[in-house]
Fold each of these.
Amino acid sequence: SIKRQTQLGEIIVTFQNEPKGLGHAVWCAKNLINDEAFAVILPDDIILSKTPVIKQLINLSQNDNCCTVLGVEKVDRKEVFKYGILSVEKKIGRKCFVESIVEKPDVKNAPSNLSVVGRYLLDSKIFNFLSKMKKGAGGEIQLTDGIQYLIKQSNVMGLEFEGKRFDCGNKLGFIKANLSYGLYDS
Ligand code: G1P
């Protein structure tokens, strides 16, 4: 298993030297990506699934010829202030066409309870926006605002993926993820 991992591809590391937001962190990889579509995986969202969520997003991207696809999940309405939240134009089964996205809205202003979790396929045109270094919610450069920029130019889709997500940004979520992966593997 360890040997297989060493053959998966080339690993290049880049650092975000200041905590300026997720959009800024992604912008730090701009020179490694150039003009290709790319995937973003936030490692504090761990998702146990038969098919990796990024692969599920790629399948939708290819079938529907859509460059930007977001992993989405319904959350408790009380929790929307923690996430990027979607307003949806049309929903077909598990997939949807995204009308707009807002970062960490108040519970009372949230357009829905459909949140983006840490899996994204993105059009490299997002760098046109991120390069402006425009601050958004919380005074940070937000990936969500870059996605809103993409929505204005082309189709952006969401997929309610198959899988169980663990929020490893908190200790309990991290413990639950370890137990579930352990049991899955046993
Ligand atoms: C980030 C994103 C947010 C997304 C979330 C998923 O927020 O900014 O849009 O919904 O990840 O976990 P963070 O968790 O870094 O505050």
Amino acid sequence: MSARILDGNALSATVRGQLAERAAALTARGTAPCLAVILVGEDPASAVYVRNKVAGCEKAGIRSLKFTYGLDARQDEVMARIAELNADPLVHGILVQLPLPKHFDAEAVLEAILPDKDVDGFHAENIGALAQGNPRFIPCTPYGVMQMLKSEEVPLKGAEVVIVGRSNIVGKPMALLLLSESATVTVCHSQSRDLALHTRRADILVAAVGRPKMITGDMIKPGATVIDVGINRTADGKLCGDVDFETAKEVAGLITPVPGGVGPMTITMLLTNTLESAERAAAGA
Ligand code: GUN
């Protein structure tokens, strides 16, 4: 048996179409939604992500500003830029692409972003609000995963969910979101003993570790929903996820591909957060 494919490109196209209408309406009312993106250093993957984010904005009718800094950039100049963008009423979202170069204190940089413009949802205040079940901005990748699960009406209440990976960007906020939907959530990581013992129990398995094809078909419960957040490159330059798609699709009931799964939804939710921020600003909220 072969799993159904959960197509992130198709869902993205639908959601982005609705966003474009909202962006046009807001612009017509005198508020042009605007996202500022800051890229520091020379990480090639980050450069691609930022290019895709800027292109996504343009297609949805959201203004974008891009600020790039070399590997030798000083933290204080990036902080000065953030302060300027915080104070600019025409900017509704500020995103600093991660990872930052090693000589940066990433936490200090993220904390410098005004929580009302933190469309990544990485500021401690926004993580706290999410943990309390009262989110201001939901981090884009887990937000996209939730939209995908909801679009397929995957039952969440009481479901056994296993998340592999405990990052601040995906694993931890993913766990909070699924908990708030009354799922039973297990978070596994590199130190977990007998990973397969956990993954085989999962009705919903979320892989977010950054290790190519580490989740194989024998680790999946028959009929499970498998969400692959990984974006890795194989030795021959091809993109692949954290899930071994070929063996997993024979066991799973529903599965996201890489590329064309979670990736496009991450950018879609960034656009959603930016637009929402602009709508709040226009409403004086
Ligand atoms: N690097 C990898 N994922 C992300 C993300 O969602 N936001 C930012 N700012 N950087 C990232």
